[in-house]
Sequence to fold (624 residues):
Amino acid sequence: MNLKVLFFIVCLWCSFIGELYEVKAQAKSADENVIAEGLLPVYKFNDKIYILIAEELLGHEFMITAQVDKGRGKYGELLESKGVFVLKSGKDKELNVYGVAATEQVTNKELLDGCKLELSGLKNYEEIWTADRRMGSGYLVEITAWLKEPGEWYRLDNSLRMSNFADPDILDVSACKDGVCFKVRHCVNVSPKQGIVEMAAENGKSYVDVSVALKLLPDDCRKTVIMFLDSPFRTQKAMDYGINPWGCVKCSRGVHWNISKETPLRISVDNSMPAVYLKALQIAIGNVSKKMGMADGIILERKNQPLDAMESCGVVFVGENNELNVDCMEHPATGHLLVGRMLVGEKNIDARILRWQLNNMVKDDDESWRICSQKYAYEKCLEENMEKGLLILLGIDEAKLENGIKDDDIWNSLRYVYADDQEWLRKERVCSTGGNLWGMFVQSRNNRKKLLEQLDVESVLAYYKQCLVMNEEEYISVFKRGEWKDGDVRCFLELMVEDAWGGYATDYIRRSMLGRNAKETSESLVRIWNEFFNLDRWLEWAQRPDCHEVFGVLERELSGWLYEGKRRKVLTSAQMMVRDAFSDALSKQLKSCHESINYGSGVAANRVLSCWEFLYEQRKREKG
Fold:
């Protein structure tokens, strides 16, 4: 064998052995220096803290939260923190950090062709993390400064109104199922003027303990929940490019915990909670669960140790320092609540007890009034306070909850309801000047039907109901304008029949009656016809200079519609419902008209009375 070739093989083998030894040495060193294992292992080398981020976690959402654990009379208070972000691989050993933006949906992907519209839900990357080195397939990133210097992962000065923190010390690092939690102590130089109770009188120092959690978020947090219109959950605005043929659609998305029957919300309390407060909290959870129809949807968990930033949802007792304060962090894109704290205490408790006693006086058998005992009032105060805070913590709109909702609506809230789109129609179409208003409504509906035929039917059922079906207020808003031109009555009747039929694109929609049964549909039609035959409005029309044209259109097209029904003989159920509602409303309004006016009441009254009697006779002949 050639001597040079042999020498090359020996060098290559030595290099391989060296690399293998280095990898083994590195792995041994890492094992010796690991201070927290788990999903996000933490290492300590030369008094510096490192975190290992596996390559398979890149592209997933992380969240950083921080909480004051002790100091300045505070406990359990959430701090402003980095929140939700995504890590992606960059050049060499770099990790790009992307902030998460409000996600905007694109139902029709074709609309993105040739557009520069970015709808990924991620902002441009905000910063770069440079890894110290690669370890296996992961990135080993030093985080010492981020933990010790408030402002990188969390902020102290905004919350505590101080900026002279010094001598930070990392007290503890502990792993959990979803990530890791760091406990950090900050020393604060204070003066008596600042009024910090914990300060040491001799050296003027106070300590603030903070817990900082770095967690991996589950994938289901990325799912935007579009709420039904009367949902008790608070809502934000979201956009969908691809539904509306005129650009985009506003919709309401829920702000609430991702609760289901399988994954209940776990609210944590520690052993510092007094028994009377714990009992009040249990009663409040029972009351709210009953109101929402979600038994077992909330579970109360007792902790032996004080809560820290790893607890997603917690209730903290803070003694005399607070009355009731609720703070939550929500996912910036989807609206899901991710972290929440309810701080409860006894500030001004005596005044609240007295107020409750005076507002809830009871009458004895001898008809004399008295107030209940202070102990009873104290317990009731706590229950009411807990329930109020719990509703805020859950993201619930109490006013909507009081209106009553169906149990299934709590669990099945993923429904496409583009609530604001209906308002947009009313403003742009009804309030516009000139043009054929009823014709615009018909054209608008036809455009929407063509788009919605391409979508999954069940997922947009509520969209049909809210945006294609004209509600009673929309009909009335056009009635008030009184702009009846040739063809307007035909368009009006077409809309009503289609509303009654539910004839939008598919048999499924027709069968569903858009969520209404025949009785509800008939009652709605009668109400619309009653508003159509509003006597005061017709008298106003009869006094206008163009009254002959208006009444001519109404009489001609309504009588033609009635005659067409007689000629056809066989009508659909929807057509029959519209005609029956017409008869009910006209006979009722005509009777009322006879009671209030007669043919001697003036020209306007005569015109209205004769028109209504003519239409009533036409309907009688049709039913013949």
